[in-house]
């Protein structure tokens, strides 16, 4: 197996050990990132729900808000499974997506289907980010042999995909047509 020397101590280490440590570190940083994202999404979903007018959209946002609270709890459980205290790391991507959702609400008329269409678009962008994050985390967990953690991440990934699908249904069933007519 290839070896490399550390500069500080001149101790030979297997390259795979160094890579594994960095890989685990990557996993932990991404876990902190999505934990921040989910915690902040709880607040944002509540605001979007209050700004929406379509009853179907309000219901979908309410359901996803409850799921998101569950995602936060699952992430806390994953940290515990790893023997770590739950920590967040500011997620720049989610911060931008959440700011965009706030702009959409601010830039559209109250009680309008256009606002609802904008909320759906903003929320689906968030869902797609989460789908990418959870899919990647699940893959990393599997490679490291954290099968229990991978299963938890898979469950959340599935819920994110379903939430995205439900938002598409709301947009296609009424909201987009109503928004186009305004």
UniProtKB/TrEMBL annotation:
<dbReference type="InterPro" id="IPR047114">
    <property type="entry name" value="YciF"/>
</dbReference>
<dbReference type="InterPro" id="IPR010287">
    <property type="entry name" value="DUF892_YciF-like"/>
</dbReference>
<protein>
    <submittedName>
        <fullName>Ferritin-like metal-binding protein YciE</fullName>
    </submittedName>
</protein>
<dbReference type="InterPro" id="IPR009078">
    <property type="entry name" value="Ferritin-like_SF"/>
</dbReference>
<dbReference type="Pfam" id="PF05974">
    <property type="entry name" value="DUF892"/>
</dbReference>
<dbReference type="InterPro" id="IPR012347">
    <property type="entry name" value="Ferritin-like"/>
</dbReference>
């Amino acid at each position: 197996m290839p070896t490399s020397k550390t500069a500080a101590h001149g101790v030979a280490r297997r390259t795979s050990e160094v890579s594994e440590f960095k890989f685990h570190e990557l996993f932990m940083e991404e876990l902190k990132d999505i934990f921040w994202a989910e915690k902040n999404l709880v607040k944002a979903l509540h605001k979007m729900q209050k700004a929406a007018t379509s009853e179907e959209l309000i219901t979908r946002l309410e359901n996803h808000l409850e799921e998101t609270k569950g995602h936060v709890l699952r992430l806390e459980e994953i940290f515990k499974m790893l023997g770590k205290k739950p920590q967040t790391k500011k997620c720049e991507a989610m911060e931008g997506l959440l700011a965009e959702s706030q702009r959409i609400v601010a830039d559209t008329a109250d009680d309008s289907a256009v606002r609802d269409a904008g909320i759906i678009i903003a929320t689906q962008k968030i869902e797609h980010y989460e789908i990418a994050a959870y899919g990647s985390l699940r893959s990393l967990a599997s490679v490291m042999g954290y099968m229990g953690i991978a299963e938890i991440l898979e469950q959340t990934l599935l819920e994110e995909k379903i939430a995205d699908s439900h938002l598409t249904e709301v947009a296609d069933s009424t909201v987009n047509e109503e928004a186009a007519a305004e």
